[in-house]
Amino acid sequence: MCLINVHYNLHPKYPFILVANRDEAYSRPTKAAHFWDDQPSILAGRDLLQMGTWLGIAKNGRFAAVTNFRDPKEGAKPKSRGEIVTNFLTGSEDIGAFIENLRANRSLYGGYNVLLWDGGEFVHYNNRLDEVNTIQPGTHSLSNCSLNTPWSKVEKAKSKLEEHASQNNDINVEDLFAIVADSEIAEDHLLPDTGVGLELERRLSAMFIKMPNYGTRNSTVVLVDNENKVTFVERTFRDGEFQFDTRFEFVIEGE
Question: Which PANTHER family does the entry mention (predicted)?
Fold first, then answer.
């Protein structure tokens, strides 16, 4: 997952509005969003290589999503970042305790950001910076550095989501997907320097990425309304072209 945008606790109908893109090698095997057979409480897509996920929500309302921290010099690590999302969705410990465990084991994973929401607290953690942020009401965006790092696509996504959420009482899923379908490349003076070289920085600066072997594999909208009804829509792409949508609706179960 390489771009996550959320409008949190400000909308009159939806306290949680999220739209995100997952960018990945086209060859990496993936299963579209579903309730998992081995973990029936989890609704998420699944990485069939490591059997974790990049973004998901549980029937009890726990939500988590992860992005990589971009560092081309980083070597392999013993644990998969996707298991962090799975562990939170299937667990019951509070967010503070969960993050303390992540901090104690931060060196076992490649660089990452994780967003954790339990219906009450909403927290961001970055293991490379050992940074914890309690997410306040407002519009936030996360890519491959840290929360609200002012990269061009982060700033653009925040602005577009804030505009849509503030001007519409009824949130349109198609309008949210349109935000993250933007494939415009940022101007060179707006590019970060993450060590991958100018040409790749250009290609990765778009919200929707389409490269020969890598790009946006799916987009996801998650809405939670005031009645605790969840709307989860995943849009799947193949080689940058639309394939299908997968839609789920359910009401969050009580504890």
Answer: SER/THR-RICH PROTEIN T10 IN DGCR REGION, TRANSPORT AND GOLGI ORGANIZATION PROTEIN 2 HOMOLOG
Confidence at residue 255, expressed as pLDDT on a 0 to 100 scale: 55
Structural contact between residues 116 and 16, judged by C-beta atoms closer than 8 angstroms = no
What are the start-end ranges of the E strands in 103-146? 112-117, 122-126, 131-134, 138-142
The conformational region for residue 119 under phi > 0 = left, psi -120 to 50 = alpha, else beta, is left
Instruction: Report pLDDT for 3.
Output: 98
Rounded distance between C-alpha atoms, residue 33 and residue 144, angstroms = 23
CA 89, CA 79: separation in Å to the nearest integer?
17
Topology, domain 3-251: Penicillin V Acylase; Chain A (3.60.60)
So where are the chain's domains? 3-251
| Residue whose entry in the numeric block shows the structure tokens 């009890």 | 60
Residue with tokens 């829509």, as numbered in its chain? 233
pLDDT under 70 in the chain at which residues? 1, 255
Per residue in 142-192, pLDDT (tens digit) is: 999 999 999 999 999 999 999 999 999 999 999 999 999 999 999 999 999
